[in-house]
Amino acid sequence: MEGEPMDEAWRVPDELWEQIELLLPKKKWRFGRPPIPQRKIFDGIFYVLRTGCQWKAAPPEFGSGSSLHRWFQKWVQKGVFKKLWKAGLLKYDKLKRIKWRWQSIDGAMTKAPLGGEKDGPKPYGSSEVGNEAVPSYGWRRRSPRADRERRQHARQAPRRADA
């Protein structure tokens, strides 16, 4: 596997890259190593976003995972991906005419299939007291005696009459 060239399906097509390149901020190189070409960085970021792999697991031909993540954060802060999204919507609207009056959103949330077993007590404690779980309405019933004992803490100073 080492040394094999990356499949071209993971790269942004040249025609699309020409449009994307116009929206990217210009890189300034002052000293040190020459910067990684923006095309390589962009391909690496989209590889990570499309595959869902960790930044450090990105193929080395895109640059280091740390560099890719650093550029991703810079571009998010500068609004690059928002500009790309807007430009894509406008282009699609010109080609296919988006029906702006009728839109639909769909989503799903499911449990991770390989989530594993519960892993014991958490350092921040549990919301259970004994075998009693917190009821769905969010509060526990207390006895009147417990309320009397809780009324004044020992640390609270008594109120002064002249205040």
Short description:
The chain is mainly α and 163 residues long.
How would you sum up this structure, described in words?
With 163 residues, the chain is mainly α. The chain has a domain of 69 residues. It has 5 helices and no strands.
Features:
single chain; 163 residues; mainly alpha; 0% strand; extended
Question: Number of helix segments?
Answer: 5
- Main beta-sheet strand count, sense and barrel state: none
Nearest-integer average pLDDT: 77
**Ends: how far apart?**
80 Å
The whole-angstrom Rg is 28 Å
Q: SS-based structural class? A: mainly alpha
pLDDT < 50 stretches: none
Q: Beta-strand level of the residues, as a percent range?
A: under 5%
What is the topological layout?
Layout: H1 14-23, H2 38-51, H3 65-77, H4 80-96, H5 144-150
